[in-house]
Amino acid sequence: MTTTELTATEMSATGMPATEFLIDGPDDADITVILAHGAGAGMDHAFMAMAADAIAQKGVRVIRFDFPYMRRRKVEGRKFPPNRAPVLLEALADVLDRAPVSGKVILAGKSMGGRMASLFLSESASRSNDNSSDANSKSVAGYVALGFPFFAPGKDKIADNNRGSHLQDFPLPGLIIQGERDNFGGAEELAALPLADNIQTLILPDGDHSFKPRKKSGESLENNIARMADGIAAFADTLK
């Protein structure tokens, strides 16, 4: 893994100092995955590190970054809630503009990061259809979600009232990887959702929102992370 820190003079569109990137995988890869973190943990969380390493072992370049609120948490040493969606979307645009990618780009994210990535791509495509230029969306070849947060845990999981309604008509090929028992929407709920024809799904056996299975299942987190990486590598091959 390498770390790339942008200079303090390179300010992001959010007004925060541009983030450093954590980079795994080859410099000359055919595919780069830009991986956004979830709401509660940043780019250096154990899950993010494990996922990035597994994907990189498939010959894919992986670039991680922190959203502005997470950078602020680390600088000031106290918790802040996630930024509102417009700020997160601006941050994604900034990362796409600055990240040292190689080859085609897959925009990906864990939980909230995956939802924001999908909204960014949907909105970018909508702007392009309105004849406005959007270089960022044109540089992205595909989309991956790791545990998409379709429903709030503990709430009724009604297909017509989910956070992924924009995925019914999606501008790019996509892959949603979901734990079978994900309390934000597991295998049963995912099967009932009307997703676009260009979105594939991959269910990880007995996995929760972080893909961790129960011990009694006979599965393991390591096996599910390996399945995740295999799925992303196969999806990436279709984009080359």
From TrEMBL:
- Superkingdom of source: Bacteria
Q: Which Pfam families match?
A: Abhydrolase_11
What the entry lists under InterPro entries is as follows: AB_hydrolase_fold, KANL3/Tex30_Abhydrolase, NSL3/Tex30
Q: Where is the KANL3/Tex30 alpha/beta hydrolase-like domain?
A: 31-236
Checking PANTHER family in the record gives: TESTIS DEVELOPMENT PROTEIN PRTD (PTHR13136), TESTIS-EXPRESSED PROTEIN 30 (PTHR13136:SF11)
Tell me the protein's name. Answer: KANL3/Tex30 alpha/beta hydrolase-like domain-containing protein
